[in-house]
Amino acid sequence: MQTSNPLLSDWKDRFQLPPFDLIKDHHFNEAFDEAFLQLEKAINKNTAMFWFLNANTDQGEIKWEEFIALGKKHNIPTFIDCAADVPPVENLFKFTKMGFDMVAFSGGKGIRGPQSAGLLLGKRKYIEAARLHTPPRGETIGRGMKVNKEEVLGMLAALELYLQKDHKAEWSMWEAQIKLISDSSLEIKGVKTEIHVPKYANHVPSLRIQWDQNLVKISPSVVRDKLKNGHPSIQTVGDKSSVGITTWMMVPGQERIVAKRLNEILSSAT
Question: In CATH, which of 2.60.260.20, 3.40.50.300, 2.115.10.20, 3.40.640.10 is domain 38-164?
Fold first, then answer.
């Protein structure tokens, strides 16, 4: 098979992979779509599970309900990876109620548990099967990747604390933090900001900052480097035209440090 998309072409080198310099962003979406279209055709006697990455929900043609129905049709368990999908707290229950056999969440991020731990929720028989590969069994699959007993208890404590939180108050705090950073950036002529909430994964108030580089003579990549290499180090995201910031991993009050530092960097470039 040879197409204009290198990810959908056959490559005869020993790794059977396309040269990375030929891969463009849109190629990934096309490849995902084709992969899902081929999903049912690919099922055979060795198919053990269907795996769904929730962060890429918008990129595939098969959505949650169709995915679950296809698993049930062929009697194959369905697993959804929701690593970055808490908050909202409702997601802890949403996908098992929907019909997924297993749901996994990161232990860190919004739940604030051990970063090396997580939650596996779902049908008892699959959880019990996964349990066979956890402590105190040290000689089973994934020995080097096991969650130890201290992390298990830490994860339980973190989950109990998370469920007791005032989630509306926490959301309001994040909104106020993002607005503070936004307002500080908007003090500089030529800067514009957008407050948004990603639909899937990291579903929290987020800030996208852009500016007219004829007025603010610095690129987003240089701004990100200055933030990262300063003291304290401030890690951001973004692309060639923007800087992206969230506050949900910050200790309250740290948003003021970020706002001040970002204002300083942008102001110095005017």
Answer: 3.40.640.10
